[in-house]
Amino acid sequence: MAENMMHAVQYSSYGKGVAGLKHVEVPIPRAKKGEVLLKVEATSLNPLDWKIQKGVIRPFLPRKFPYIPGTDVAGEVVKVGAGVKDFKAGDKVVAALTLGSAGGLGEFVVAEESLTVARPPQVSAAEGSGLPIAGITAYQALTAAGVKLDGSGPQLNLLITAASGGVGHYAVQLAKLGNTHVTATCGARNLHLVKSLGADEVLDYNTPDGAALKSPSGCKYDSVIQCTLGVIPWSTFEPNLSTNGKVIQLTPNATAFMTYLVKKLTLSKKQLIPLYADVNKKDLDYLVQLVKEGKLKTVIDSKHPLSKAEDAWAKCLDGHATGKIIAEP
Ligand SMILES: NC(=O)c1ccc[n+]([C@@H]2O[C@H](COP(=O)([O-])OP(=O)(O)OC[C@H]3O[C@@H](n4cnc5c(N)ncnc54)[C@H](OP(=O)(O)O)[C@@H]3O)[C@@H](O)[C@H]2O)c1
Q: In what residue span(s) does the Enoyl reductase (ER) domain sit (predicted)?
């Protein structure tokens, strides 16, 4: 391969799933003003990656084809663009790439300095790459639920659904840094794992009580962090909520927005809150520090070489990851 070229995986149209991915040789991107060029060491996938390919956010994303997907990366700085102050060649980092350009499924990628944080040696590339979207979403959902991670504040009863997934497994660990009682749902094969992450009680979602989201100890939830890909109807949450209980909905559909509006307009004490993560440097740095301090870990579902990125994509599409799916050049 020529010196200025790299291997990447891209797609050129909406749809087609794994079959739409193509291995290509493309020029190594250049770091412009305020950007750093990274040699990618690990990229974690999110359901958002295949949702963009499916056309869920069309016509906004992708902005143009071909598109190299992947937004959550860890790697080493190779070059810095003009005006970059905080990084130099050789620095290990974690970066959140903007959705417009993405590029994580390539050997090199440019990241904005404003969305890049230092990665200490205690945080592996794979662990760090899991954090941007999934970790920040979990953190911001807990903030919306009123949880203070320094342990201050009154005890809150939380339900975290899909606690074995990318967002859910971070949410359980972060919630337990605060003053919380955590009920979690997952499949039977992950009951032990989710308990080991700190959940106080764990429900198998394939049992009647699990499907009904009923706490084994009988507690009513002050907040639900709703992490399942599929939508759970309000009628299932409602009887399990405390008087002022709220559902933080991470995958809101039209019905969820309707419920949100109705609850707001009727001044209902029980609320549904659609949440979209605001990916930012401060929160990413905070999470990297927690991993460094051993207070948070990334559960790795699987690692796949970039040459087999299709396997990682298929796993993500399947919706049954335990923790994060990682691709490595
Ligand atoms: N709003 C935002 O800003 C934002 C940000 C990030 C993610 N999201 C969305 O949040 C959702 C979750 O993302 P993710 O990365 O955590 O997905 P993920 O890693 O693909 O989640 C997979 C996990 O969900 C579990 N699961 C599936 N259905 C379940 C159910 N009914 N009850 C309990 N567990 C269930 C699966 O367990 P089994 O394998 O046992 O079935 C699996 O472990 C996605 O829709 C994603 O797009 C939104």
A: 17-327
CA distances from 214 to 88, 160, 208, 230, 244 (A): 52, 12, 9, 18, 17
- The ranges assigned to domains in the chain are 5-130+298-328, 134-274
Instruction: Please report the atom of ligand 1 found closest to the CA of residue 167.
Output: 16
For the chain, give the mean pLDDT: 97
Cα of 271 from ligand 1 centre, angstroms: 21
Ligand 1 atom closest to Cα of residue 190: 40
Tell me the pTM.
0.98
CATH number, span 134-274: 3.40.50.720
DSSP state of 196: H
**pLDDT at 106 exceeding the cut of 90:** yes
Superfamily, domain 5-130+298-328: Medium-chain alcohol dehydrogenases, catalytic domain (3.90.180.10)
Which pLDDT band, with edges at 50, 70 and 90, does 263 fall under? very high
Which residues lie across from 224 on neighbouring strands?
159, 247
pLDDT higher than 90, residue 231: no
Ligand 1 pocket residue status of 55, Cβ below 6 Å = no
